Amino acid sequence: MGISWENIRSLLIFFGPILLPKAYSWYRSFQSSRRGGASIQRVPQPVQIALAVLFGLCCTYLVKTLPYFAPENLFAKTESRIQIPVDVLFNRIAATRPNNALTEEDLALRGKFVNLESRLLYLQFGPRVLAECPFCTSDEPKSYFYYAIPDILWPHLANLVAIAVVTSPTWTGKYGIQWRTLATIAAALLAVVEISIVSSYNYQGNARATRLGDLDMFFWTLRNYRLVFLALLDGILGWVLYLSATNRAFTQPPRLLSESRRSTGPCFLQRAR
Q1: In this structure, is residue 85 part of a structural domain?
Q2: Domain membership flag for residue 82
Q3: In whole angstroms, how far apart are CA 259 and each of 59, 178, 253, 264?
Q4: Is residue 181 in some structural domain?
Q5: pLDDT by residue (tens digit) across 180-239?
Q6: Are the beta carbons of 253 and 27 closer than 8 angstroms?
Q7: Which residues cross the membrane (predicted)?
Q8: Phi-psi region of 247 (alpha: psi -120 to 50; beta: other; left: phi over 0)
């Protein structure tokens, strides 16, 4: 599983002009807070609630990486090689089911597993896409990718909505709004990177695997990476939100004094005249 240098360069060219000015602005605000800006304060109550929401999301994402919550992997469950005869594989699956009866998803996969190509695509896109796609065929592997796009984007979109809520000015005020742009860009970048990785993945590499341990369980590995990075994004957002809300860092530089001097200067001159 990987992403090419061309993909990375394209992302840097697209997001670089947006991120660099923001990074410089945040660096200046961080330096101004270190030089002695506003005094440290307690976390405002609305920000406390936002931090609790972000913490809950982080915990949820990390818990979902546990094997118990992962979609079933038929090859790992039965400890079978990818070249196993289809009848033998599903006889083993039936032995693990209640009353030795295959589920509807099992039957759908059994109809797809008649060739090696479909099994390789199963490791790339997971069980639901292989079992439920009504128009996908192994002769057109990209059809599975197009069908899988909503499933790939859904967690990112849901997390983006959560970010928009906790950084809204009506909830967290100036402390949240200053991080909204960066958090939105980071969330979009995660989605773009995952789409790029799935699209460019060489699923044919598993065809050479002769043992279960040699298989690259791409779908399940990428799912865990997605959850970990979403938790990391929300954790970092919560951290910087806490720092800015308590005036420990990233405080806005004080401008009131200079603006007051500029506004009172002309009045003083008029009175002197």
Answers
A1: no
A2: no
A3: 45, 22, 12, 9
A4: yes
A5: 999 999 999 999 999 999 999 999 999 999 899 999 999 999 999 999 999 999 999 999
A6: no
A7: 49-70, 182-204, 224-245
A8: left
